Amino acid sequence: MLRRHHDMGGLEAGPVDPFGPGAEHDYAPWEKKVDAILRLVSDKKRQIMTVDELRRGIEELGPGVYDELSYYERWIASVTNNLIEKGVIDIDELGRRMTAITEAWPAGGVTEAEPKVVPETDGQGA
Amino acid sequence: MAEDHTHDHPHDHSQFQPDLEDKPLTHYQAMTEAVGELLIEKGVISGDELRAMLELIDAKSPAAGAKMVARAWVDSAFKARMMDDVLAAAEELGIDAGGIPILAVENTPEVHNVIVCTLCSCYPRQLIGLPPDWYKARSYRSRTVCEPRKVLAEFGTVIPDDVEVRVHDSTADLRYMVIPQRPAGSEGLDEAALADLVTRDCMIGVTLAKAVG
């Protein structure tokens, strides 16, 4: 059976280790902000994107990126890609803003010049 | 807009928390801040709405679910209504359970329930807050549906062989919460004390409610 990467129910995997490192963390402010942004752009007032579109965007990250990114990194990648697709924000203005924010950050950043959103080979189409 | 972003927009990037400013900003953190700023500047969302939503997210905790479970333990009519419609039962207690249906599944001496979301991370967050990382991790998502007793044992929860284990795979359109069994010796406790026995993990079904005393 062909299954997509996110569809992992029933597959073999390691122990859960609920008391080990990485089992829990207090969500960082930026992670909560991702959550808040998604909830606002998907609320009744705005209806810019749906939770299903969030998931579609996450699932289209592809196996490599999906496993490489943390949970809320996947979310903001999908939210951002959806907002670009829908013309709400522009990829160039996003890139400029990310650069400006990173340059203003006291400890600098690890951002790249171009926003890394969903890879083009995986990110197109529904 | 923002052709030349020179930081003349009305907020001050110099006001960083001292424990955060020492760390380099990651790519996706910068993306989050940029998207938030652009949405506000374009009038898609307001700063007040963003702040209010962040406060709402922080306000959600397992306390809401625990209150419902404690009421269900002392009031069988309420429990019946909760089994029928969690959102309406929550409203009775002044709890906003959101708009996505939640199904309550009750643990009994014969049946133990546990919830998972194999596809992503669906979770009754309105009633028990944001999910722990292990709930969203590959190991829990993959294995809970095929070897639940083994997974539960990793939480220190050993379900006797004569008790049936039911696994509920959540979706974007239907979430679950577990009503744990009321602990032995809790007969004399009031609702607030009962609610203290109800943990997040027992409402996921990976543990039992706390023992009395």
TrEMBL record, chain B:
Residues 28-207 form the Nitrile hydratase alpha/Thiocyanate hydrolase gamma domain. Pfam families: NHase_alpha (PF02979). One of its GO terms (molecular function) is transition metal ion binding. Keywords: Metal-binding. Residues 1-20 are annotated as: Disordered. This is Nitrile hydratase subunit alpha. It comes from Pelagibius litoralis. The lineage of its organism: Bacteria, Pseudomonadati, Pseudomonadota, Alphaproteobacteria, Rhodospirillales.
